[in-house]
Each structure stands twice: as C-alpha cells, then as structure tokens.
Amino acid sequence: MPELPEVETIVRELRRKLTGRKIRDVKIKLPTVIKPQSSQYFRKNLIGQTIKDVARRGKLIIIELPRRRFLLIHLKLTGQLIFGEAPHKHTHVIFQIGRATLNYNDLRKFGFLLLTDKAGLQDILIRRFKFGPEPLTKDFTPVYLAKSLAGRGAPIKALLLDQTILAGLGNIYVDESLFRAGIHPKRAAKTLKRAEVEKLFKAIRSVLKQAIARGGSSSQNYVRTSGRAGRFQNLHNVYRRHGHPCPVCGGEIKRIVLAGRGTHFCPKCQT
DNA sequence: CACTTTGTTTCCAC
DNA sequence: TGTGGAAACAAAGT
Predict the structure, then answer these.
(1) Strands A100-106 and A79-83
(2) Whole-prediction pTM value?
(3) Which of A134, A153, A172, A247 lies 20 to 30 A from A54 at CA?
C-alpha cells in the first residue's frame, strides 16, 4: 500500500540517486497505460533533462526539471518506484539514468505520471491537490487538528482520510491511529474532547514515525524502492485483522465499511 | 463470480 | 453554498 512512509523513502532515494543526473532516455513500455497526454509528452521532453529537486506533498511526488518543467508522479495503491529491477508485467515506465534504471510499476494502474510546465503544476496543485499540512511537520499541531474537526458532524475517520485536512494519511494509518488513540472511527468529529484530540494527534505522529522506521506496510504488495518489503504490517493492531483478538483487550476486531473504505477497529477499546 | 484496494469525482438530499 | 452520505470510476488479483 503506498502511503506516507514509502513515499518518504522513495523521495529520499530519488534525491540521492537522481539529483543532478541526466535522464538520458525514458522508455515507454506500454504507452496506453499512462494517461494518454503524458506518454507523448514524456518521449518528447524528458531526454537529456537534469533533475534539480524532488518534493513531496501527500502522495504526490514532484520532480523539478530545468526550464520550469515538472514531473509529477502520483502513487496510489499498487504504484511503485523500484531501482535496479528487471522490468516485468506491471512495469509501465522505465527511467534510464546513466547505467541505473528506475521502474515505475503499477499493478492496478490507479496512479499516474505527468510532465507539465509551471502553470500546469500550479493548476494541479491548486485545483486538484489542495493538500493540508504534512503530519510530521510543525504545521501540524493539536490546535490545527482541533480546529479542523470543530463543528464537523462527519465521522472522524472520514475527516482523517481527507487530504485537504491532513496530507498523506491513508486507510491503514487512519485505522491504526484511531486504535492507538482509543477513538471509534464512527465518532462524529465535533464530539471529540480536547484530551482525545491531543491523544489522536500523538497517535498519528507515533504511528507514522514507527511505520517509516520500519519501511512501511507490506500488507499486500507494497515494497520499498530497493524492492524489499516493509515491516510495519507486523505491528498492525487492527488493519485487516478482523476476526482476530485485540492485542490490548483480547476482544474481537471488527470490520465495517465507512467512508467507502474497509474500517477495522476494536469495539471494546475504541469508544 | 463477488469482492477488495485508493483517491477523486459526481450525484443527491438537506 | 456547505455538508455528508453513497456510489461510481479506474484495473486486476484473490
């Protein structure tokens, strides 16, 4: 599952391996797989470019190229960027950087790559990706969280998944954060007490930090850019553990559908 | 076959 | 206009 930690890892490795290097060639293996406008654009525009910088906002990776060009990579679900791997059935784009290769794989093809100019980038960032703060920066505070939840009748889980409130939290980490905070995913956001908001704030940060430290969650087919699996799935308390006992109280973990997502929680511990 | 998965969009009701 | 719920969409593996 591509979520925050793996994107962090990818960006770090992209910086290390690509910054200042030339992209000599970009091979489009299956042009129809990528958004139609981008495959053409790739072929024409990427050859010989030098990567200047890489940034991350939520699950969107933005690589700055010279001449005010930007490469956007939006990783969703099964999207992967893997260094030094033989291309396979789900490899859609291969970046050749010197002798190194970086594969863009996406089994379900939910993600996309797009090469665009400054105006297009701004358009996308402003109109399509109005991201809230990064959970692990100082922009994210208990006060901000409280303010975002105040007066909202929606279930707390729905708001935590909303990227305009908080960037980069996906289904796994929302479920795990709510478990750690002892809050029921269906609770109306505005009913959270001050102490609960504080607890949730801490839970989100600690879950993400631990997940990053362990290289993310390989619960289905996520792997790191090195191709190795993450190890946070071993620490999942509730995510896809319905029918199993709660590690805290021993009660049964339940699964419901909330905000269109599989939602896992302990009915005893989370109120 | 049904079902799962994510992020986004669309539609509908209030 | 904002809000929230529900459904739809992409694609493919289980």
Answers:
(1) antiparallel
(2) 0.83
(3) A172
